[in-house]
Structures are given as structure tokens and as C-alpha cells.
């Protein structure tokens, strides 16, 4: 580099062009559980390699690489400890993201992103191109290992945003909360913990909710939460005061998104509310960090599923087609926004989008944590 003004731009482009190398190193560290192995203090690469069952010289190179990114820390005596970023990779750390990072690094995820060019050229999902299935959920249903990796990752993702959802939305008055396709119940558990007067219904496929009872019990809410194995495309439990869907609508094309929302509408009585927890795209993308997790998640939907991220206006259109009225779109201080809707037949007047903050995504000057592209959720 020569100091020419273009050099800074070139350096940034090169950083972006090789960013996958650092992320891949992080994936491997998470999948090997290295942060957990360092929980009791620094250890040598040889000790870690023996515990992890890997090649010691190669592991040392991985540890040194991630020490440059503050994930690990190389000691003066050659041992390695946890760096400032490495602590959240421990399984027992509050807000641990180990399972989420490990999911991003799974071969299934990595391979579909490797076929991004195919998806851009053809519009076909990489899942269809590589595996002959329209979206990854088909594979999760038949491959127990893939399903387990995904469910663990989604539970970790929900844990990263649950506190913001609970703090942002007023759940008072919602005595029966139905979490549609709620996975193993992490988000619902946090809502119920914060509101002991509420009861919950957790709906997801039987194989998914099989892991919910232990999580709900650990959260101390199992006695207030019904676990229902079922298919949201078939029916949604009726009688809820609030229908909660996190990272569901973005997984699907418009037709099937409307089908899901329509089933929720059929289950809703007068006065019930629908709450979507979704990333909301701004109408125009600005080159700011806050936009990056939103647009990368949109590409993730392109390669892995048949869905897409949407703008506030597009969410309003989907809701309207399902017989619902968009009320508010509220930022949470994370890449996720809360989209509240009511039955269109209710007497409440529509709150104009222009009168509300559309989403964290539209307020691109606000400081937001830059999460990676969401997995499939």
C-alpha cells in the first residue's frame, strides 16, 4: 500500500474478501468446545489438543489466529486462555452464543452459502440446488443430527434477543400467550418468567418440542406452559390473547407466509393481538453497521430457504392479506423489531406507519449491536 486514498478502500475490500477465514476459524473453535476446555484457566495447546482429540500443532495455529481477534489470549509462557470475546463461547456463560456459532459453522450451513453465486444467477435456493429440497427444514425433519444442531442454535439466538423483547413490549393483559413455531421455548420461557400471571402454549413440530420440557422446567415455568406438537400450516391453537412468532415469517415466500398468518387470524378472537419478532429492512440501504445483519440475513434466506427479509410496508401487505391490521413496528435495540397487529375486524383504528418508528432498521443512525446474519431464524 502506498498511502494513496484508494489504499484504504482496497484494504477494507480485502478485509471483507477474507472475512470468511476468521469466521471459519471461529466456527471450528465453537464446534471443538475450546472455550469450555479453558474454563478453569490457561492451558497449553498440547493439553487442549489431548482434551479435544485434535492435532496439537494445528490447534496451536488456530488458537494464535483467534488470539489476534481477542477470542483467545496467548500467555507469555505459551499457554492460552480466554480472551474478552471468548467467554461468550462457553456453554455455561450467560447469553452463550456457542451453539449459534457452531450452527453457522455446520457443513450444511457452510455448503449452502458456498452456492450463493448459483442462487444469485438463477433465483433457486442453494438448498434446492445442492440437496434437492426447497428449504432446509425438509432436511431437518429427516436428519436428526441436523435438526439438533439447528434447534440448539435457534435456542441460543432466542436467548440473545429475549430480554430486549420482554423489555420492549408490554405483555400485561396477555393471560394466554401462544408461541407459534416457538422451537424449544426459550423466548416464551423468558416472557412467562417476567409475567407470572400469564400462561403459555408452545406450538412446533413434535420432534422440535420434544426438547422443550427440560428447558421450561429449568426456567421454572413448566407448570404454566402447555407443549403442543403440531404444524402451523395445519392449525394454530385458538383462544390466545397474544400470538407470538419469532423469525417465522421471513422463512417463507409470500403465499406461505400469508397461510401462516391466516391460521393465526382464524385462531384469534376479538381483542387478541399478533406479535412478530422479525428483522425489518429499511426502504433504502445505507452503508452503516446497523444495516449489515439485516441484509446478510436476507441473503441467508435466499440460499437456505424460500423466504426473505421484508420492509415495514411489505409486512403490512402480508398482514392485510391475512385479515390482520398492522398497528406498530417498534425497534428493540437489536436487529429485531416488534411488529404488532390486530384482527382487521377489530374497532381499533390503524396506526399509520408514518406515525410510528418503523423499525430499528430504519433508524440507521442508532447504535445497535451488529449480530451476524441470522441462521434460519
TrEMBL record:
Active site: residue positions? 250 (proton acceptor)
Instruction: Return one Gene Ontology term, BP aspect.
Output: methylation
Pfam families annotated for this entry?
Answer: Dimerisation, Methyltransf_2
Tell me the ranges covered by the O-methyltransferase dimerisation domain, including all copies. 18-89
The residue ranges of the O-methyltransferase C-terminal domain are 113-324
- On whether Manganese is a keyword of this UniProt record, the answer is no
UniProtKB keywords? Methyltransferase, S-adenosyl-L-methionine, Transferase
Segments spanning the bilayer are: none
**Which Gene3D superfamilies does the UniProt record give?**
1.10.287.1350, Vaccinia Virus protein VP39 (3.40.50.150), Winged helix-like DNA-binding domain superfamily/Winged helix DNA-binding domain (1.10.10.10)
What GO terms are given for molecular function?
O-methyltransferase activity; protein dimerization activity
Task: Report if keyword Protease is assigned.
Answer: no
Q: Give the protein's recorded name.
A: Methyltransferase
